[in-house]
Write a structure and sequence with these properties.
alpha/beta; Rossmann fold; 4-stranded parallel beta sheet
C-alpha cells in the first residue's frame, strides 16, 4: 500500500508522540505502507518542519526528513484535473494521483475534493484502520 502524508501529519507526530499522526508515521517507519514523496512535498516538509516558529526537535526533524527523502519519486503530472480547495495542498493530491496512492492522510480533509477516484482522503485515525499494522502496534489483539 502507498500513501501520501500531509505535512500537518508529520508536525502533529512530532508534537504528540502518542497520537494517531505519530502512529501513522511509526507505521510508515515499520514498513506497513510506502510513503509517496515528490520533490515539491519534500520541499514543503523541509520548509515547515525546520521553521523556527514551530520549534520542533532538530534531531527528530533531521531523522524524519532523511527517512522520507529515500522515498522521493519523480512523478508525472496527474491524469485527472481534480482541484484542492487550498491551492497549497494541490501538490499532495497531484502526487497521490500520479503515484496511484491508496491513501492521502491529512488533518484537513476539507481542503481536498470530497471524492477523488482511487484515492481515499482520510484522517490519521482513519488511516490506522486501513493500514496493516505490525502486531506490536495493533490495538485489536
Amino acid at each position: 500500500m502507498t500513501a501520501v502524508l500531509d505535512t500537518n501529519v508529520l508536525v502533529s507526530a512530532l508534537w504528540s508522540p502518542q497520537g494517531s499522526p505519530a502512529q501513522v508515521v511509526t507505521a510508515a517507519y515499520a514498513g506497513s505502507f510506502d510513503p509517496v514523496v515528490s520533490e515539491d512535498i519534500m520541499d514543503e516538509y523541509f520548509r515547515v518542519l525546520t521553521s523556527r516558529e514551530l520549534s520542533l526537535p532538530v534531531p527528530a526533524v533531521r531523522e524524519m526528513l532523511a527517512w522520507f527523502r529515500q522515498f522521493l519519486l519523480p512523478l508525472p503530472p496527474p491524469l485527472a484535473p481534480h482541484r484542492c480547495h487550498d491551492p497549497g495542498d494541490q501538490k499532495l493530491l497531484d502526487a497521490a494521483l500520479a503515484a496511484q496512492a491508496a491513501l492521502l492522510v491529512t488533518g484537513n480533509r476539507r481542503h481536498f475534493p470530497a471524492h477523488v477516484p482511487h484515492v481515499a482522503i482520510v484522517s490519521p485515525a482513519e488511516a490506522l484502520h486501513r493500514i496493516r499494522l505490525p502486531r506490536t502496534m495493533s490495538d485489536d489483539r
